[in-house]
Amino acid sequence: MSVAHLLGKWTRKFGTILLDVITFLVFLFLDFLDAVLCVIYKLLDEFFEGKASTPCYCGNKGEENNGEGDGEEKELSETLYRRKNVFREMGFLGFARKWEYGKERDGYGGGVLVNRWSDCGCESCVSWMKKGNDQKLHVVVRELPQASSTEDSRREPAENVIFLHGFLSSSSFWTETVFKYLSGPVKDQNYRLFAVDLLGFGRSPKPSDSLYTLSDHVEMIEKSVISPYQLRSFHLVAHSMGCIIAVALAAKYSNFVKSVTLVAPPYFPSAKVGTSTSMVLKTLAGKTLWPPLAFGKSVMSWYEHVGRCFCFLFCRNHRTWERIMKLLTRRRELNFMAVDLPRHTHHSAWHRMHNVICGGAKFMDDYLEVLNRSRVKVCIIHGDHDLAVPLECSNKIKMKFPEVEFNIIQNYDHGTVILGRKKDFANSLEHIWASSQM
């Protein structure tokens, strides 16, 4: 073995060790920072909001019930509490405190629509509060083909399609992309398309007293789309986090659903058979420094109070950042993704990450089994360069449910699997809908 080869081997080993040490120190500092911010935010919340302040998740509730409660309690993810923090576990400066989850939450909010001091209060962000208790999701409805006469406008659509977006997005993800390539009748069939802003996203309500569980999302879609439009049959198309909600909705309406198209679905079968949902968090948002996007995702998912600081700076001031970006880019209109990214609250984003993405993993097998028994057509589309949701997730669905149609798109990642091939994706949807006619 040559000296050059040995030198290269030891250099790589030293680089790996050095990166591990730096990673450990960075996240140790973030542990400390999050513990300090826990106390700071607690004082600020009580000062600005009083009894209406929302308690954080720095306690140990997850260790007490292990997610085995009834109803809504069962849908809460262990990852809300089981995020190790060295300084809290040491009781450093008294940050590790014990409090009863139910007792504290019974008193806050009281069903009153209030805007948190750290959230944006602009017209577009709080307009939903003016509707009182009759809260519904923001839904964009489009018919194919477009009605050209009074008679056409009164016709009954033959097919309905509900589109659900992913994390930190909105209905614009569909209306600004795929909808533009679905402009005429699909395979000689009239369609009515529904693009939904999920609860806590875009222009939809962002209640501070919601835990944003799977049931909450499904109920709001029922209330905002299925019931008011009296849907008796429909197709579902979903991306990323929206796939979990789509599967839950489809399982509940298995007799109504004609097809379910899942793009890059997060799926972790072992989350049901005994391992903690912490495994899901570690897989999707593991503590790493590189690449930068993965580092940001890990910080926002593991550190409740550090993440709230970022939301305070960017989400609360999204109008200012939009003006700055327009000046820098010299554009009157920004890309819809840049506009959608900060349009949420920390409370809503935090709970969706844990209760939908992590907590929803333990229900996926049951939902997919219902669809399998009901012979609902399920199609999966996944890019082989997806770093956000590993291709392995879709491979495992195919292995467990062979009837699923699985398409691997070469050289595309989590976003470009749709955004980089809009027309091809629209054609794929047309084929799926046409082949699932009853």
**What is the end-to-end distance?**
67 Å
Strand order of the largest sheet: 1-3-2-4-5-6-7
Mean pLDDT metric: 85
Number of helices: 20
Number of strands: 7
Rg, nearest Å: 23 Å
Low-confidence stretches: 62-67, 98-112
Counting helices, strands and paired strands, the structural category is alpha/beta
- SSE sequence, one letter per element: HHHHHHEHEHEHEHEHHHHHHHEHEHH
Overall 3D shape: globular
Overall helicity:
40-55%
Strand proportion, as a percent range, falls in: 5-15%
The major pleated sheet works out as: 7 strands, mixed
Overview of this protein structure:
It is built from 20 helices and seven strands. With 438 residues, it is α/β, with parallel strands linked by helices. Helix 18 links the parallel strand 6 and strand 7. Helix 9 crosses helix 10, helix 10 crosses helix 17 and helix 12 packs across helix 13. The longest helix has 47 residues. The protein is globular, with a radius of gyration of 23 Å. The N and C termini lie far apart (67 Å).
List the helices and strands and how they pair.
Elements: H1 3-49, H2 61-65, H3 72-75, H4 86-89, H5 101-107, H6 123-126, E1 139-144, H7 150-153, E2 159-164, H8 172-175, E3 191-196, H9 214-226, E4 234-239, H10 241-252, E5 257-263, H11 278-285, H12 292-302, H13 304-315, H14 318-329, H15 336-340, H16 346-358, H17 364-373, E6 377-383, H18 391-400, E7 405-409, H19 416-419, H20 422-435
Parallel strand pairs: 2-3, 2-4, 4-5, 5-6, 6-7
Antiparallel strand pairs: 1-3
Helix pairs in contact: 9-10, 10-17, 12-13
